């Protein structure tokens, strides 16, 4: 299973990624989580100690130069467009409680025209993770699909867009849907987060009638407290895990 998770900043995307990873790992799946959002605190959300930090692949200048045969930051010239990346997940990752984590770093956004070594390195690695790894891969992305190209988009089983009750969140979701369609990624599903009651649930269903909802997650002060303290949202929170379990059930079916 290959999943990409995106949505407007602040909707709880990282919380959803952590929940998916925890439930799938608890069910015996090998799980590799890719942090591709510069604003994410995914390591803390997965329970990694604060002193365990990974340098983003896109910032590893010596590695990029070794594999692409060009200096990061350079434009034009000659460099490898298919650098070796198959050994990187094992070398540059952390593992805890059945979940492996990699930090990807920023990809130049569409329209920037960046054909540069670091961009090629990251895109090649994403393609390998989605096309060549025999495990669950969950990609935690920015509010877009910049890490995905047309070839890799076809490997994504589901693009999960996290939304909350609010017009701005839904506007971003529609934009993501458009960008996904541009690269041929049409298998989208929504997760409604921070739901305060039936009114919020109905609001989202009415505003997004043509996209399926995989599930809804209730607003929970425990999740807010976990974010403030830098601990996993699922610790001592069976209600949250139950909601995430239902979402995983729908994904698997």
Protein model, in words:
The chain is α/β, with parallel strands linked by helices and 253 residues long. It has one domain: Rossmann fold, CATH 3.40.50.300. 40% of the residues lie in helices and 18% in strands. The protein contains 10 helices and 8 strands. It has helices at residues 13-26, 42-45, 61-68, 88-91, 117-132, 150-153, 167-182, 198-207, 221-229, 238-252; strands at 2-7, 31-36, 94-96, 99-103, 136-141, 158-163, 188-195, 213-218. Strands 3-4-2-5-1-6-7-8 form an 8-stranded mixed β-sheet, with helices on both faces. Helix 1 (13-26) packs across helix 10 and helix 3 (61-68) crosses helix 5 (117-132). The termini are close together. The mean pLDDT is 89.
List the helices and strands and how they pair.
Elements: E1 2-7, H1 13-26, E2 31-36, H2 42-45, H3 61-68, H4 88-91, E3 94-96, E4 99-103, H5 117-132, E5 136-141, H6 150-153, E6 158-163, H7 167-182, E7 188-195, H8 198-207, E8 213-218, H9 221-229, H10 238-252
Parallel strand pairs: 1-5, 1-6, 2-4, 2-5, 6-7, 7-8
Antiparallel strand pairs: 3-4
Helix pairs in contact: 1-10, 3-5
* Structural class label: alpha/beta
Strand order of the largest sheet: 3-4-2-5-1-6-7-8
How many E strands? Answer: 8
What are the segments in which pLDDT stays under 50 over at least 5 consecutive residues?
Answer: none
Q: What fraction of the residues are assigned to beta strands by DSSP?
A: 15-25%
CATH fold-level topology? Rossmann fold
- CATH architecture descriptor text: 3-Layer(aba) Sandwich
How many separate domains? 1
Distance between the termini: 12 Å
Could you estimate the helical fraction of the residues in percent?
25-40%
Specify the CATH class. Answer: Alpha Beta
Mean pLDDT: 89
Largest sheet: 8 strands, mixed
Q: How large is the count of helical segments?
A: 10
Radius of gyration: 18 Å
Shape: globular
Determine the CATH superfamily.
P-loop containing nucleotide triphosphate hydrolases
SSE order: EHEHHHEEHEHEHEHEHH
């Amino acid at each position: 299973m290959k999943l990409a998770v995106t949505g407007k900043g602040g909707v709880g995307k990282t919380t959803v990624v952590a929940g998916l990873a925890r439930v799938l790992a608890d069910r015996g799946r090998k799980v590799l989580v890719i942090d591709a959002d510069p604003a994410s605190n995914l390591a803390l959300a997965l329970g990694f100690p604060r002193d365990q930090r990974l340098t983003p692949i896109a910032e590893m200048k010596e590695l990029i130069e070794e594999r692409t045969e060009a200096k990061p930051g350079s434009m034009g010239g000659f460099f490898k467009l298919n650098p070796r990346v198959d050994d990187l997940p094992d070398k540059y990752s952390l593992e805890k409680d059945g979940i492996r984590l990699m930090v990807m770093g920023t990809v130049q956004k569409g329209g920037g025209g960046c054909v540069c070594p670091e961009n090629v390195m990251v895109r090649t690695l994403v393609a390998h993770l989605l096309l060549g790894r025999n495990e669950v891969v969950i990609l935690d992305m920015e509010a877009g699909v910049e890490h995905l190209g047309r070839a890799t988009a076809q490997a994504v089983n589901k693009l999960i867009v996290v939304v909350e009750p609010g017009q701005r969140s839904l506007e971003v979701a529609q934009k993501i849907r458009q960008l996904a369609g541009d690269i041929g990624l049409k298998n989208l599903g929504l997760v409604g987060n921070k739901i305060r009651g039936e009114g919020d649930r109905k609001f989202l269903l009415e505003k997004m009638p043509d996209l399926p909802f995989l599930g809804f997650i209730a607003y929970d002060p425990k999740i807010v407290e976990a974010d403030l303290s830098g601990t996993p949202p699922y610790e001592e929170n069976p209600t949250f895990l139950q909601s995430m379990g239902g979402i995983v059930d729908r994904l698997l079916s």
